[in-house]
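Tip: read the tokens left to right.
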């Protein structure tokens, strides 16, 4: 296995629907240019935009923020810059409930609400204490089926009463540190920029404003401005504070676009946005050395170990043609759903998968094939590690 290129993993943070045009431009125009620049330096480029990729099931289990922050940490651990790109407009965005709260704090907030509060029972239904955690903590549970409109009937009212309880207790700073009242984008920015010492060297934020007043015949207005969507001064103050913090810690670039009846971008606006993002990120990439970091060397060694494990398992492999054909058909269909191979311990599941991987590599030519065997190394003890 030959030494591979440095890997730049860039995490993209933005609110959702209001930045679809920008995210499309990044994927279609900016990232391909950066990918070519990286290849010319012996590096690889990979953009991670979880606004496209978090599953509905993860959302149902209230794991969205956990997944997003974990992927952000992975981008940071690679070590190569840039690893964080921010898009901010005039919406503060979705404010999720905290996935976890220390038991002592949670019980103080619940006591402050009072047993007679109309939402006290709801709070106890969706948070359950985890006594195995040290210290003990209350965990947010999967969304119960009776609450079809989770945001309207659960998240929004509980956020309001918990914030009020925190205000009365004088522990607002403590609850904000857990993410209570902060938007998903804000929490990502805290971890990806505000808490990073060298953020100004490589983190870039692009903040958008509109020229003129919205055309009320344009049906997308409410997707772009919090005041139209929510009418909340709370989110507006959060957003302004966030922008001011970013200016102190990272590189903030303002850009302006016109309101349009058929959308918000003219060809000139698109070209300007593409160029400013490309040039700023390219400047960071150009400053990076072309040699692998210690972390990347370890990752390459891990890949070698999995490759060797697969070669050893498929050595002398015979038979299982029906199963191999099933796997081949599954790959050809490209359903996007997982294929599960079941069997008792020692039945030869790893050998079958190793042989299937070899045959797939032969058929697919230059396609990038990832072989990973859980338990093959000390660093692969589970699905995530």
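Filled-in amino acids:
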């Amino acid at each position: 296995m030959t030494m591979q290129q440095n890997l730049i993993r860039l995490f993209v943070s933005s609110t959702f629907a209001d930045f679809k045009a920008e995210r499309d431009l990044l994927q279609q125009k900016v990232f391909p240019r950066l990918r070519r620049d990286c290849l010319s330096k012996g590096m690889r480029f990979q953009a991670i935009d979880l606004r496209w990729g978090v599953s509905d099931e993860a959302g149902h289990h209230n794991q969205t923020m956990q997944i997003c922050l974990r992927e952000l940490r992975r981008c940071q651990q690679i070590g190569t810059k840039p690893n964080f790109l921010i898009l901010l407009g005039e919406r503060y965005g979705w404010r999720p409930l905290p996935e976890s709260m220390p038991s002592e704090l949670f019980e103080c907030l619940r006591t402050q609400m009072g047993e007679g509060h109309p939402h006290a029972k709801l709070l106890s239904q969706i948070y359950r204490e985890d006594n195995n955690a040290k210290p003990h903590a209350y965990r947010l549970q999967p969304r119960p089926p009776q609450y079809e409109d989770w945001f309207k009937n659960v998240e929004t009212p509980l956020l309001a009463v918990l914030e009020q309880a925190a205000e009365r207790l004088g522990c607002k700073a403590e609850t904000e540190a857990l993410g209570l009242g902060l938007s998903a984008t804000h929490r990502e920015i805290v971890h990806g920029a505000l808490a990073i010492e060298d953020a100004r060297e490589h983190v870039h934020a692009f903040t958008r404003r509109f020229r003129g007043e919205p055309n009320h015949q344009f049906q997308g207005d409410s997707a772009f401005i919090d005041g139209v969507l929510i009418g909340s001064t709370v989110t507006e103050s959060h957003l302004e504070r966030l922008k001011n913090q970013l200016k102190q810690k990272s590189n903030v670039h303002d850009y302006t676009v016109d309101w349009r009846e058929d959308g918000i971008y003219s060809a000139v606006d698109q070209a300007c946005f593409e160029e400013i993002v490309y040039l700023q990120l390219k400047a960071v990439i150009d400053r990076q050395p072309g040699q692998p970091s210690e972390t990347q060397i370890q990752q390459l060694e891990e890949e070698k170990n999995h490759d060797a494990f697969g070669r050893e398992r498929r050595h002398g492999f015979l038979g299982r043609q029906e199963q191999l054909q099933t796997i081949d058909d599954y790959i050809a269909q490209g359903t996007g759903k997982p294929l599960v191979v079941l069997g008792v311990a020692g039945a030869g599941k790893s050998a079958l998968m190793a042989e299937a991987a070899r045959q797939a590599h032969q058929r697919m030519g230059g396609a990038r094939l990832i072989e990973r065997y859980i338990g093959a190394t000390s660093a692969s003890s589970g699905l995530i590690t």
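Strands lie at 6-13, 43-48, 84-88, 100-102, 127-130, 137-140, 204-211, 251-258. The chain is about 50% helix and 10% strand.
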